[in-house]
Amino acid sequence: MPLTPKQQAAYSEAGNWVRLSNSITWAMAAIFPSLAVTPLYFSLTTRVPKPLLVLFSVAVAVFWIYVEYLYEKGSTHARDTLAKIESASGFGPHDFYTQQARLVPRIFIMIILYLIFCAGLALAWLMTWDWAPVAPILPN
Questions:
Q1: Phi-psi region for residue 55, left (φ > 0), alpha (ψ -120 to 50) or beta?
Q2: Distance (Å, rounded) from C-alpha 68 to C-alpha 117?
Q3: Which of 3, 83, 122, 123 is least buried, going by the fewest C-beta atoms within 10 A?
Q4: What is the pLDDT at residue 135?
């Protein structure tokens, strides 16, 4: 059964939203880790209080996860709409969005990536504190 003009428009716009959401999410994944490196740099080269740097990194993480949640929510709704249009129209072997299975929501993947990244930063921060068992990397 062919798509009506309204369904064609909805399918096109929902597909565009999914692609835009994915592009924004992965662009943020390229930007936010570099923001998380900034506190590490300052903890090694300045006398800025370490807890303040930790708070900055946590704020970056919370903001990143919140924005990721918003785009994930919109992308999931658009993907569900695409799957409904495909199943109602009988796309057959070309129902691309219906065949895509999500085992884990993308936001969990981003959180895990951030936590892995921050584990290394946390270790480096701990090594720069005065009570650390290892000497600081750079003198403060």
A1: alpha
A2: 17
A3: 123
A4: 46
Tokens, residue 31:
């930007």
CA-derived radius of gyration, the chain: 22
**This model's pTM is above 0.70:** no
| Three-class DSSP category at 36 | helix
Residue pair 60/32 in contact (Cβ under 8 Å)? The answer is yes
CA distance 70 to 7: 25
Structural domain spans, the chain? 5-128
In angstroms, the CA 91 to CA 79 distance is 15
The whole-number pLDDT of residue 44 equals 67
Residue 120 has pLDDT above 60, yes or no: yes
Query: What percentage of the chain carries pLDDT values higher than 70?
Result: 71
CA distances from 12 to 18, 21, 92 (A): 10, 14, 18
Q: Which two tokens stand for residue 55?
A: 């708070």
Cβ(98)–Cβ(83) below 8 Å: yes
Structure tokens given for 104: 């884990």
Question: Which tokens hold the place of 138?
Answer: 């750079």
